[in-house]
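Good morning,

Attaching, inline, the backbone tokens for the sequence recovery test we're adding to the shared suite. The designed sequence is right after.
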């Protein structure tokens, strides 16, 4: 509550939490002693003496965040309110396997904090986003596509042992959904966030909270689509959406036509440069994605559909998705629906990770108080 600005005094904490003032005061004293809180100045008075204002201590700590992709990792240190203090990129190849990648990422995060003068600031927790389904109970990646060696690997346990920190492991599209919602759409309760990169992911916000289901909620990548040409997906089934419309699928299609694009960003560059084969490919992908989203929009009836990831910068792709949804969905489902590209851009997942770590603050506070 203090980190997000909902409360700035002990009295406000007691009123908002429903706890006794004595209990709140005891907890606040513990947090001050632990170096997390500071009291300074004077807050607004509601009658009587003005209360001292509670703030997070400037050096209360940071969370570390790693958002893993197929060929890169976005690294960050965020303060305890979820605001990035340092951000960097690390080239990785997710197919190398979990031990090597996680070790490199943790080393990269340590280097990042040192480069930005944060080496003396306590690290309170670590969040890792992965491009595959995550069992929320165990922190394991379950049957991912294009992630050899990661299936059932204990990511949370391994990373916690390497970093000596409480660790949150989450699907990258889920992190993006939380980041977009908290940073850009806080007044909307129901949102779908689509991540279009090397793969395809979807995060779902229901009644203002991330909906995980049993870990596979929002996984639209393996929805079967209708296509003239059959393509086998990495999951073993034919004609999954990801096998036809993901960045990896588009790159393979273009390669068959003699056009090289090693990443989704390079596909976007080809579209921007007006290469007709690339434009046709993303329009076809947009139609397939739009057909799948049509059913989901009718079913879920969200307030907003946000399209993010590297491929969201391809304007013809987004326009085709938008057109398919407006053409095929029920008028009531689209009457007030906002379809938009990401407002938080590359840092959406980082912002989401910071907020989820803050939501689980009991874990890292207990870790801090017992060290």
């Amino acid at each position: 509550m203090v980190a997000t600005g909902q409360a700035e005094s002990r009295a406000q904490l007691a009123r908002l939490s429903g706890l006794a003032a004595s209990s709140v005061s005891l907890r606040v004293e513990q947090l001050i002693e632990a170096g997390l809180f500071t009291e300074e100045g004077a807050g607004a008075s509601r009658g009587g003496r003005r209360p001292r204002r509670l703030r997070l201590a400037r050096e209360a700590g940071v969370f570390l965040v790693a958002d893993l992709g197929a060929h890169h990792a976005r690294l960050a240190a965020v303060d305890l309110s979820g605001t990035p203090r340092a951000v960097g990129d690390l080239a990785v190849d997710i197919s190398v396997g979990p031990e090597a990648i996680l070790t490199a990422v943790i080393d990269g995060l340590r280097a990042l904090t040192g480069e930005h003068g944060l080496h003396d600031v306590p690290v309170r927790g670590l969040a890792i986003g992965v491009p595959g389904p995550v069992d929320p109970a165990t922190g394991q990646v379950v049957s991912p596509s294009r992630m050899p060696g990661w299936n059932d690997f204990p990511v949370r346990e391994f990373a916690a042992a390497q970093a000596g920190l409480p660790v949150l492991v989450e699907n990258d599209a889920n992190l993006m959904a939380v980041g977009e919602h908290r940073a850009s759409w806080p007044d909307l309760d129901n949102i779908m966030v689509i991540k279009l990169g090397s793969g395809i992911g979807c995060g779902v916000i229901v009644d203002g909270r991330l909906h995980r289901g049993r870990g596979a909620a929002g996984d639209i990548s393996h929805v079967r689509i209708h296509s003239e040409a059959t393509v086998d997906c990495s999951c073993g089934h034919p004609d999954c959406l990801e096998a036809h419309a993901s960045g990896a699928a588009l790159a393979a299609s273009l390669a068959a036509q003699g056009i090289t694009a090693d990443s989704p960003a390079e596909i976007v560059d080809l579209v921007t440069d007006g290469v007709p084969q690339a434009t046709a490919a993303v329009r076809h992908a947009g139609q397939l994605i739009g057909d799948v989203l049509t059913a989901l929009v009718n079913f879920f009836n969200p307030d907003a559909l946000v399209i993010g990831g590297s491929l969201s910068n391809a304007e013809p792709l987004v326009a085709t998705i938008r057109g398919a949804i407006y053409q095929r969905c029920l008028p009531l489902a689209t009457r007030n629906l906002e379809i938009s590209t990401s407002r938080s851009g590359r840092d959406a997942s980082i912002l989401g990770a910071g907020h989820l770590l803050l939501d689980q603050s009991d874990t890292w506070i207990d870790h801090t108080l017992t060290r």
